Batch of 3 targets.
Target 1
Amino acid sequence: MEDLTSKIKRYVTLKAQIESLESELEPIRESLLNELKEKNTTRIEQSPFYIENRIIHQERASKKDFPVDVWNTYSKQVTISQLIVSTIKDKSKRRSRSPIKKIQAR
């Protein structure tokens, strides 16, 4: 089990490093976007690099916007796997939750 613990510790350490680097990266990103805006363009090339700001448009619809048969025919379902790594909290500090009430069908 120690092997799993060391993997989790390594994951948490790397995740913290990534978050630290992302916080350093954000001001640079904003500066580059401002440069594009000042030059009124979406792409600048400066050898050996280029920067480009792509705008992605997405259109979505809600299930309530369509008749049931149309929704059932054309809707698509996407499954995403998410790995969550967190520290285990002390159970005595956990806030109490009210028990789930079961509703009985009549």
Target 2
Amino acid sequence: MFIQLFAIRHIPTGKFMPLTARNRGYTQVEAGDFIELYAAVVPRLFKSRAGARWALNAWLKGAWIQEATMGEYGIEGYDPCPPKTPPADRRPEDMEVAVMRLETAEEGGTR
């Protein structure tokens, strides 16, 4: 049995966008931080091709910054702002959404 997942791959290097756990969003990840498939860090996986495409489109625009809206009693909310100019090193033709297949091991197999 298997499930189909999707990941974002940098075509020239074959590396994948990593799953981030640094209290920063994935748009903060630079292309140089992409990982090998079997690295110690897990690639960021998506349940749908559309979700991966949306994430890729946001990433191509550059690192998004949240700006706080200040009110009378402190912070009232946050406004996510995309960068004014997309970074030159984030080129759409260098990226793709890759299909991943996750299979379960046969009974008695390795886990």
Target 3
Amino acid sequence: MAQKTCILCGLEIPPGKENREHFMPRSRTIKAIWNDPRNIFWAHYMLNAVKADYLPCEFFEMKYDLTYNAIKHWRMPPEDREFLARAIKNWDVWNPNPCALCLAKCHDKQK
């Protein structure tokens, strides 16, 4: 089985740690966007929890603070804490443009 890459950090996700990430969260968008297959990506389940219901642009602005806070205060297995630490290091070289994946813009253009 092919390795899955985390949309939130660019790292390969260890088997059994993958989760479906709705890039535009349900609580912050309309159903047509939330259910769109172009809005669903693979993410490490712990980093997906860190992102929570933030919009992509909000998460990528606050990713360091949110992730450091999770490492410091959340209960999690050591391998998940280590994955989050590797994600922080990887952001130095991997920094996508979250606006490029924003379906809200696409949906507005289709109207």
